[in-house]
Design a protein that fits this description.
323 residues, alpha+beta, two-stranded antiparallel sheet
Length: 323
Amino acid sequence: EPIQETKSSVRIFTFKDLPALEPIPYALDTARDVPFALFYYQPERFFAYAKLGPEPYWKNAVDTYYKSYLDEDVKKGKAFAALHGELSEGLPADPVAKAFQLALKLDARIRNTGQPTFEELSQRGKNPKKIEAQDLEGAVKQGEANSEGMGLLFLHLLKAQGIPAKVALVADRDIRLFSFNQLNAFQFTHQIYGVDEPGKGTAWFDPALRFATPGLIHPDFQGTFALQIDTKDWSVAAVTLPAQPATGNVTKLDYALDLQEEEDVFKLRESFTGVADLIQRQTYLALEPKEQNRLLKEAMERRLKGAVFTRTEVLNANTPKDN
């Protein structure tokens, strides 16, 4: 039973010793039919529409909040225009191919402070200047943006190219699954951007993934439900993000064995593509080279019991064109 009290005309219910309950589909079978209460904050601007059902609620959320966040309140000026001109050189005509090249160029041109390298961390002061995600002009002038800002930069570079992108608001499956029928505008943890490919559907991009192949989506978001916003007309729909083929996630091993009189020398080279490449980059990106090599040595010795590694080296952790 909840503890009930009233303070300043506000009725307060206090629940204690509530058992942890995973949401469906992660809930135990025995717990799926157990009633439960879900509490979340409903902004005043959304309150009236919550009584009308999912479609009116999410359309209002887009019209009164996300449209401003994604477009109307974004700051752009001469610096952004110059960046667009710089990155536009040599782009192909096909929209998806154009988006692919724009993502590559943006990743090389603007530092993503959400996933810094060791060198960048060592050069930053204790109180670095913070750029708001919507301040694209400030991001370009400073040459860096956080992960959220990288997404907005990509979105508006596409817009400047005449490509009205789609935005998928997604939730990390390790935290929750998005539910269109749950009228809670704070379910999302990330944004992914889509470009329509005639006859083939939507190609999705995540500019927040630093040094990743454009078009790669983190496994936490693949195959999950999302709220899709089409910036062409600001329409809204519930969609499922595609699960990407596993054939693009490759770990390749090359080895050579040199039989000598006193000892055998074994050389192993391991390279990665797709999600495997992403995981390895995120493991080593923020470490200095000697720490990268130490961590690799320890990992290899755990994998190959009894082997002694005289030298290990991590290559290309900060070079996106090489795996």
